[in-house]
Amino acid sequence: MFQEFRTKAALRTALLAIRKRRGEDAGRDAALSARLAQLLIEYAPRCAAFYWPVAGEFDARAVIQHWLQQASERSAALPAVSSVHAPLSFYRWTPASKMKKGRFQIPAPADGMPAYPDLLLIPCLGFDAARIRLGYGGGYYDRTLAALQPRPVAVGISYECGRVKQLPREAHDIPLDVILSECARYE
């Protein structure tokens, strides 16, 4: 379906339009929530970083909130852009956290308490069989994965409509460890 797109920019535009047309779907989100909950049990991270959903992305907040309630030693974090060409910074999040608008108007925890995640949930507009992710084009997650030591488990979150045969790949693209969609778990 997407073989005619030679550039990431053209593919981004097409995938965003598809996601917007599809709209919200409780069944699709419930299936993705179940896969994510199972993955969190299997990997048992101490600190799971997730993302604040924008542009029709899957909203993991309810799954993360439930996961946090299961054990007091668990923590969650949200990313924030500290500068344009730097890796993301992560800050502790709880359901009671006060939020402030960060770069791109995406909410981030207001208290700025640093966090060091051992598992990262990463939004994907698209992905391929090699677990290469297509994001919004800023390179923030690629820079972050390249910089964090030890590297956290990188889990892409996407809807199945974002799966493509092969993405145009660049030297800085880092394969994710796992990608979850409402239909499958790709490893």
The CATH architecture: 3-Layer(aba) Sandwich
Could you state the order of secondary-structure elements as H and E? HHEHEEEEEEEHEEE
Classified by CATH, the class is: Alpha Beta
Question: Per DSSP, what share of the residues sits in E-state strands of 2 or more residues?
Answer: 15-25%
CATH topology: Rossmann fold
Low-confidence region ranges: none
Number of domains: 1
CATH homology superfamily: NagB/RpiA/CoA transferase-like
**SS element count, helices:** 4
Indicate the mean pLDDT: 93
Helix content: 25-40%
Keywords: ATP-binding, Ligase, Magnesium, Metal-binding, Nucleotide-binding
Catalytic activity: (6S)-5-formyl-5,6,7,8-tetrahydrofolate + ATP = (6R)-5,10-methenyltetrahydrofolate + ADP + phosphate
Binding site for ATP: 8-12, 133-141
InterPro entries: FTHF_cligase, FTHF_cligase-like_sf, NagB/RpiA_transferase-like
What report would you give on this structure?
The protein is of the alpha/beta class and 187 residues long. It has a single domain (8-186), classed as NagB/RpiA/CoA transferase-like (Rossmann fold, 3-Layer(aba) Sandwich). It is built from 4 helices and 11 strands; from the N terminus they run H-H-E-H-E-E-E-E-E-E-E-H-E-E-E. The chain has helices at 8-22, 26-43, 61-69, 140-147; strands spanning 47-49, 75-80, 89-93, 99-101, 107-109, 119-123, 126-127, 133-134, 153-157, 178-180, 185-186. The protein has a 7-stranded mixed beta sheet, with helices on both faces. Strands 4-5 form a two-stranded antiparallel sheet. The mean pLDDT is 93. Belongs to the 5-formyltetrahydrofolate cyclo-ligase family. ATP binds at residues 8-12, 133-141. Keywords: ATP-binding, Ligase, Magnesium, Metal-binding, Nucleotide-binding.
